Automatic annotation (TrEMBL):
It comes from Vibrio ulleungensis. NCBIfam families: ABC_phnC. This is Phosphonate ABC transporter ATP-binding protein. It comes from the Bacteria. Its main location: membrane. Keywords: ATP-binding, Cell membrane, Membrane, Nucleotide-binding, Translocase, Transport. The keyword Oxidoreductase does not apply. It holds the Pfam family ABC_tran. It is found in: Cell inner membrane.
Length: 271
């Protein structure tokens, strides 16, 4: 059984505003899928419909044997524990430390009063330290989030999502505000972690070259419909023209690959 199965997912705001139409795709364990397409193609809407931050008009999102579209609020909250979300704008609490932001990923597992006092089990704290080491931020544990660079903030967002011990990652434009070198480092980090933990991920990404370099499979959206679904090698000039329109794609060369940084600890798969 696929880690995630989407069937006929549709989001129409009106007859003239069709964000998604009949999107169907499966995501396997450990598979990293890159969503590409022009602005307004429905990439962010698709990600938000999967965890129902946006309510679909129709269709199914089957995750761990449950159709998320049919769940009530309480049951949806339970399922969302297993879905890590990484946002373009980081969504950190600026006045809190790096460690406190990472531990906020455990709020769904901690009783309400303890969460108000930010009292977490020792096992959660130990895992947060391990995650921060894994994303290269072990020296910034007690630094406030508003003192970090964009790349560092994105790493905190990754660690926070992983602190949930998720079974699925949804990632919305993780490199949009980053310089090219940092963007490659972030995409490499996400790819490596997903491979280590056999963690499936869907990434909304604008940079086609980054997608071709770091994801296993590419899904192209245009006007809310899937117009391409294949490997990076299958994404040729004709397919890019079908997704984006006419352009000289032959001149779009990838930049040389920089040396791979080593951020230390490799985490065991979540159980």
């Amino acid at each position: 059984m696929s880690a995630l199965s989407i069937k006929g997912l549709t989001k129409h705001y009106s007859a003239d505003d069709k964000a998604l139409t009949n999107v169907t795709l499966n995501v396997e364990a450990g598979e990293v899928i890159g969503l590409i397409g022009p602005s307004g193609a429905g990439k962010s809407t698709l990600i938000r419909c999967i965890n129902r931050l946006t309510e679909p008009t129709s269709g199914e999102v089957n995750f761990q044997g449950v159709n998320l579209v049919g769940l009530n609020r309480s049951s949806l909250k339970q399922s969302r524990r297993q879905i890590g979300m990484i946002f373009q704008e980081y969504a950190l609490i600026e006045r809190l430390t790096v460690m406190e932001n990472v531990l906020s990923g455990r709020l769904g597992y901690v009783p309400f009063l303890r969460s108000l006092m930010r009292r977490f089990p020792g096992s959660d704290i130990q895992r947060a330290y391990a995650l921060l080491d894994r994303v290269g931020l072990s020296e910034h544990v007690n630094k406030r989030a508003d003192a970090l660079s964009g790349g560092q903030r994105q790493r905190v967002g990754i660690a926070r999502a992983l602190s949930q011990q998720p079974s699925l990652l949804l990632i919305d434009e993780p490199t949009a505000a980053l310089d090219p070198k940092t963007a490659r480092q972030i995409m490499r980090l996400i790819s490596d972690i997903c491979q280590e933990q056999q963690l499936p991920a869907i990434i909304n990404i604008h940079d086609v070259n980054l997608a071709k370099r770091f994801v296993d499979r590419i899904v192209g959206l245009k006007a809310g419909e899937v117009v391409f679904d294949g490997t990076p090698e299958q994404l040729n000039e004709d397919q890019l023209t079908r997704i984006y329109g006419e352009e000289d794609w032959s001149s779009d060369e990838a930049a040389p690959e920089p040396p791979t940084p080593n951020f230390g600890l490799v985490l065991e798969p979540a159980v």
